[in-house]
Amino acid sequence: MVAKTLQRVRFLLGRAGSGKTYRCLEEMRQASESEPLGPPLILLVPEQATYQTDRALLDKSKRRASLRCQVVSFRRLAYLVLEEQLSRRRVLSELGREIVVQALLRRERRAWCFFNASRVRPGLAAHLSRTLHEFRQYRVSADMLRRAADALAQTGQADAPLVRKLRDLAYLSEKYHDFLADRCFDADDVTGMLAQAIRQCSWLRGARLWVDSFGHFTKQEYELLDALLHTVRDATFSLCLDPDVLRESESAPNESRLFHQAEETYRRLRALVPGQTLVEHIFL
Question: Does the predicted TM-score (pTM) go above 0.70?
Answer without folding.
Answer: yes
